[in-house]
Amino acid sequence: MAKALSEVMAKLEAEGNLHARNTYGRHGATGPMFGVRTSKLSRMARDYGPDQELADALWATGNVDARLLAAKVADHEAITAARLEAWVEDCDWYMLVDGFVADCAARTRHVRALAEQWRGSEAEYRGRAGWSLVAHLARQGEVGGALFETCLDEIAAGIHAAANRKREAMNAALIAIGGHRAGLRERAVAVAEAVGAVEVDHGETGMVTPDARAYLEQMARYANRRSGDGGAAR
């Protein structure tokens, strides 16, 4: 493993560039990093994963690029809930949370339990991970609507008091629930109207926070057009 880790770290260093480092920095990354573009990380993941032992070693380096790659090469069948708990505690910027969730946590058998456990956390990034998993589940068909009804209640009651990047993920979950759960769309729109504008500090970036009501109305129009074109039958 030592040889494999050194090989991967050397490749990460070779693939790094100043522009990507500056971009990651503007988005909140701190600590050691080479600045490897996500497209290159994805190509590396195809070469080296799945390999949980390598993923653990990469994560342990604390290097930004290595941790992003660790989430991509993790073995979704082998990784334990305890390991996922340890990793989410280490997440210290929102893009790492998002990579960890999309590339790893959301693909494991632990996804529902982690969404339940993490979304109530007052910790900014753990809470973000939980709500990002809620959004992932809302886009799937396996989970019943009761979870999302509870989540809508929690969003209505607590979104404005939540930590910055957790608040952003709650807004995204609201959009995912209303956009992908037809039976809850009307209620999600009502929640969006009630909470109004959601303010998120995006730092030194050009990113903006979607208006949930407008976004949901746009998604509904698109769904209606697809249904009219026969898209719903496909």
From TrEMBL:
Protein name in UniProt: DNA alkylation repair enzyme
Domain of life from the UniProt record: Bacteria
Record PANTHER family: DNA ALKYLATION REPAIR PROTEIN
Organism name: Plesiocystis pacifica SIR-1
Pfam families: DNA_alkylation
CDD domains on file: AlkD_like
